[in-house]
Design a protein that fits this description.
Blueprint: E1 18-27, E2 36-46, E3 52-61, E4 67-77, E5 83-90, E6 94-103, E7 106-116, E8 126-133, E9 139-146, E10 153-161
């Protein structure tokens, strides 16, 4: 894969392109017994100069190094250079289309569509995400999650370095 050739359309997203690894990552939710610390490898990479980024997230538990969550997909940007769409498939059977905007080294998205395979045990009804490049060159991430029983609630915070 050629990661150096970047499509012109992706320039507003150039700050997020690359391989990131968590420095701190915590997942919590009202249905969990306690917060869980985890490690994450996150990537946003160009695919041979095409006008979108490939996205992948792999996580594992800090206590026993067991695999946790994984998801992959694509980050698109519209011709207006601010509207974005994140299209994701999560390993446990949820797919999302999340739409939002990029501005000043920040991406904010909200789910516009959520789909589930028939076998999903824990349904998701909404998700929001925020990515921000801070003044130290670290990537900050926040996520909120809504389910049929729990309204949109803080779910994840992570801090990454390249």
């Amino acid at each position: 894969m050629n990661v150096t050739k970047i499509h012109e359309k992706l320039k507003p997203l150039s700050w997020i392109i690359g391989e990131w690894r968590s420095v701190t990552a915590i997942v919590n939710y009202p249905t969990m017994k306690h917060p869980v610390s985890y490690t994450e490898k996150l990537s946003f990479v160009s695919h041979q100069g095409r006008p979108f980024l490939n996205y992948q997230s792999l996580t594992w538990n800090d206590l026993d190094n067991s695999p946790m969550h994984s998801e992959s997909g694509f980050l698109h940007i519209d011709d207006d250079a601010t509207s974005v769409a994140l299209i994701l498939a999560q390993a446990f059977g949820v797919v999302t289309i999340e739409e939002g905007e990029v501005k000043d080294n920040t991406i904010n998205t909200t789910s516009s569509h959520v789909g589930h395979m028939r076998l999903v045990k824990h349904k998701v009804v909404s998700i929001t995400r925020s990515y921000r490049l801070n003044e130290k060159g670290q990537l900050e991430y926040w996520s909120m999650l809504g389910t049929p029983r729990t309204p949109l609630t803080e779910h994840i915070f992570a801090l990454y370095e390249k």
